[in-house]
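Closing statement on the flavin-adenine dinucleotide sub-project.
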Amino acid sequence: MTEQRPVNEAAAKPAILPDAQTVTSVQHWTDRLFSFRTTRPASLRFRSGEFVMIGLMGDPDPKTGKQKPILRAYSIASPSWDDELEFYSIKVQDGPLTSKLQHIQPGDQVILRPKPVGTLVHDALLPGDRLWFFATGTGLAPFASLIRDPETYERFDKVILTHTCRDVAELEYGRRLVDHVKSDEMMRELTDGGVDKLVYYPTTTREQSPKMGRITDLLTSGEAFRDLGVDGITPETDRAMVCGSMGLNTDMKTILEGFGLEEGANSDPKHYVVEKAFVG
Ligand SMILES: Cc1cc2nc3c(=O)[nH]c(=O)nc-3n(C[C@H](O)[C@H](O)[C@H](O)COP(=O)(O)OP(=O)(O)OC[C@H]3O[C@@H](n4cnc5c(N)ncnc54)[C@H](O)[C@@H]3O)c2cc1C
């Protein structure tokens, strides 16, 4: 007769990741970009525009067999009221995290450390008339959250989202999102029609498109202002959030300070805020 042992339930189940959330959908936009949605921990509160650490378990150590999580900073692309979380991601072919993350499927688990932080938040800006979001590449992610937040339209009369990428296909996630925000019945209701205040200004730097050029050049030449029918940027009326490469952020700081804007922070709200879209 075989001995009956109590079943070890934890051992019987597949390994559950710490702080695990379940992937609910995945969409690939180009060979370098994808977005995905996950369940949201009931206890997670965040401000639209903030980022969290997300990741996957790494491969087992060949000697010890132990696995360590590979975690990276990710802006939450969904607004704070959404039941799920959305992320917009690069695929770096030899990147420790995204070489694996790009293969996730609905039902898979990702690790999410529920400690949201960041400077691209309304609390870091003084009140103003017009809000500019300046993004390159995946730097769009925090603004994907903020353009779906009713507070953005309560605080400002006009919201201008600029997004610059090398190729047209890299604009597609943002373009669809803006279309959705402007046409969706629930978004209109949530913002009391405020979404009509949103102006979208996409540009490409490599592939031919209706508007070509770096946003920095388009601002300094005044072309962007002429296109948008805006007089310029002043500390009296304008507020700005910037999210892109180190180069974009540095150049945008110089440009915005040239217009007289001062950099703000959560503890000291001013005219503009900046965050890196990635390190390197
Ligand atoms: C505050 C903050 C928020 C971030 N939010 C996002 C986000 O919402 N979406 C996202 O995809 N990434 C975001 N990142 C970058 C992210 O943390 C990782 O770097 C990225 O997921 C790649 O991870 P990896 O381990 O594959 O490669 P890593 O070793 O982290 O990066 C390898 C190299 O790839 C390049 N790279 C990394 N990320 C990007 C990127 N997003 N765009 C272009 N080149 C990149 C850099 O040259 C980097 O040195 C954010 C970074 C910071 C600091």
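The domain at 122-276 is CATH 3.40.50.80 (Rossmann fold). With this model delivered, the sub-project is considered complete and its resources will be redirected to Aim 3.
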